[in-house]
UniProtKB/TrEMBL annotation:
Lineage of source species: Bacteria, Pseudomonadati, Pseudomonadota, Gammaproteobacteria, Alteromonadales
Pfam entry (one): DSBA
SUPFAM superfamilies in the cross-refs: Thioredoxin-like (SSF52833)
Protein name as catalogued: Disulfide bond formation protein DsbA
Gene3D superfamilies per the UniProt record, alphabetical: Glutaredoxin (3.40.30.10)
InterPro entries assigned to the protein according to its UniProt record, in alphabetical order: DSBA-like_thioredoxin_dom, Thioredoxin-like_sf
Entry's Gene Ontology molecular function annotations: oxidoreductase activity
Residue ranges of domain DSBA-like thioredoxin in the record: 7-205
Protein origin, superkingdom: Bacteria
């Protein structure tokens, strides 16, 4: 069996476009199965949300304007519902605490557990309007998923989770990624960024799957 195509996926848990992309990623897994392998990374988009949003949206309605932008962005995607009070009822200070917790989960329990918890965190924010910057909530979500939080705590305490998160953030800068989500396909042969449609993702990935790495790609 051929080795799976590696897709390095960079996202911010508070990014609405990454929330929308979640269903596309699930569909890619369903269609392409073991032919692809996602490696999950995090990028700093809302690391300082409490300053970013008021400053960048000062002339466009502040938090209320940004909240409406998020709701409008998701309105066309029925499979990614967004709570009507997102970014209004709760205003997470940072996505970094959640990213750190997810890296700790990956170290302690594996990438699959971390991926499942990342989805739970996104659902908690976009569906239930909960503040996923709060560590107490993150531990609660992990416990509800049946994960051993004591092992996650070890990775938080010994600095390994922080080191892994800083590696992600630094790699995103080195790669000059524009934002969330970003797909790095086949060790950098192609980068897809933003609200990329499912058919575009599928076509590009399938092109890489049928074209040996040493050959030139027409995609």
């Amino acid at each position: 069996m051929n080795k799976p195509l590696i897709i390095d996926y960079y996202s911010d848990v508070l990014c609405v476009w990454a929330w929308i992309a979640q269903r596309r990623n699930d569909e890619l897994h369903s269609k392409l199965g073991e032919n692809i392998q996602f490696r999950y990374h995090y990028i700093d988009v809302f690391g300082n949300a409490m300053e970013k949003i008021p400053n960048q949206w000062r002339d466009k309605g502040g938090y209320q304007g940004f909240a409406q932008h998020v709701i409008d962005s998701g309105a066309a995607y029925l499979d990614t519902p967004i709570h009507s009070q997102v970014w209004q009822k709760v205003k997470p200070a940072s996505s970094a605490s959640c990213h750190l917790f997810l890296k700790a989960t990956a170290i302690a329990l594996g990438e699959q557990a971390s991926s499942e918890l990342a989805l739970a965190c996104r659902q908690a924010f976009f569906n239930d309007c909960l503040d996923i910057s709060q560590l107490s909530l993150l531990f609660q979500l992990a416990e509800q998923a049946g994960f051993a939080t004591s092992k996650i705590q070890v990775a938080l305490d010994d600095g390994s989770a922080m080191a892994a998160l800083m590696k992600d953030y630094q790699s995103a800068k080195t790669l000059a990624l524009k934002g969330s989500p970003s797909y790095i396909i086949d060790n950098g042969r192609q980068v897809l960024y933003g609200n990329v449609g499912y058919r575009v993702l599928q076509a590009n990935i399938e092109e890489h799957l049928k074209s040996p790495t040493e050959e030139a790609s027409w995609c």
